[in-house]
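Table S5 (text form). Sequence records supplied for joint modeling of the two-component complex.
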Amino acid sequence: MECSEALDLLYSSFDGQITPTQQSLLDGHRRTCFACASSMIKAERFQELIRHVPQLTVPRGLEQRIINRVVHGSSSSTPSDKVRSITTAARQNWRQASAFGGVLAAALAVGVYVHNASLPISGPPLVAAVQGALETIDNGTTQNVANGTMDITGGSTVANTSINPAIVALTAHLNMTLQGGSQVHFERVATDPKTGNVNEIDVHIDRGGVQVHEDLHHEASPIKIATDQATVVPTGTTFSVDQRLTGTHVTVNKGSVAVYTAGRVMNLLAGQGMMIAANGGVLRDKPVKPSTTTTPTKDIVTKQHS
Amino acid sequence: MLPIFFGVTIPGAVRSYHLEPVSLGKDLALMQRIANGDGEAFAELVRRYTRMLYNVAYRYNASSAEDLVQESFLRAYQHANTFSGRSKVSSWLYRICVNVCLTHQGKSGVPMADIDDVNEAELVSRTEDRPDATAVRGETFRELEDGLRALPSQQRMVFILRELQGLSYGEIADILGMNEQAARTNLCRAKRRLQVWLDPLIS
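The corresponding structure-token record, covering 509 residues in total, follows.
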């Protein structure tokens, strides 16, 4: 057997498409050709990798958008998917966000669009400052906001349509950077009608990733960032949550976070990271400090590699 | 060193054939209702097959995946009366989606590599440029996606339909308008190139 045939025959064997005679030839070649044997091992690993590629989930509201567009001739959406959320319990005055944004508004040219869906609004909108250009779509109407502020209410979707990161100042001491191509959905925004203080922001990462930075010198305000796999709660820190095809990647730059996933909680310290796979399995980049209140990390890790 | 992914099973992984719970008869009836302008029937079609088409479109062109899926369903709605029932609705939708993807690629102005345009030496050099830390951080699937997008369109689509969607060679041949042997050849070439692309991660 020629070496050039061996790999193709191996690929065919993955499909169960080779005869016993061909299998015998392949086995014989493998025993006598070191180069092919090495390639075949890699091919088998590659095949194993392919086998584990998970199916993607459909972006929030896509089905309804399709139905609206095709049947009703509208581009508006009414997301009906189960709500996932990022929660920020930031309690700073929402007006401070504008001032903070004023400092931020100068740099990157980014494209972000905001889509307001019909979800309940609690209190006045959160006024967030954004670096770059904003594009808002409400009931089919597009509105552009350049280097200014935007109102965020429950139901708003913010997407960064550029390849550059975009920064959204949620409060004076809390901002969120959307990576290029990312999209988040604000499921709930609760502000105090009297004071304007931001009590709660629930956001879900539809795709891509965000980095959250909270000013550690101010009152710590636990922030929870949720994806389809996990909810991440910091204690005043800088961290990133990335919703990828493979699952959710969490990296902590400063401080610490607690990662809630599938009934478990794990603490991550600065410099640590982890990935929560689509099935809820957890892979650690670095050792994880066990939570004192939940399932020991050791059990989690053991389960993931079983 | 093997990436850590190889030690992990993902039981939630689903192939397309698991997403086709309806019989041909029900498919045909559904399509007839859609052809008669039944919006609820169309909504049912969308709910059944959006995930299937989204997986194809995203793997083919991530940045335009939603648009591609929307366009596919729009065409399906407009041409529902042409569905004869000789094939599964899923195959019919796959064919529409593949055509939309290929057409979109052409319109986008992105250079389409010919089947042998990308030589393996180039792929090797590109993989060597990438940091080893990528593997350590468990980026294997993302690298696979990147490698996939570097493939010629035909190879890419055959790989998506066969390896990621689980279609038979017969279905792929029907959808892409090629014979089964051509589908096999394209798949082998795609795998060879992807294996080279991922070599640092699977060595």
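Note: Confidence is low (pLDDT under 50) at residues 1-23, 106-138 of chain B.
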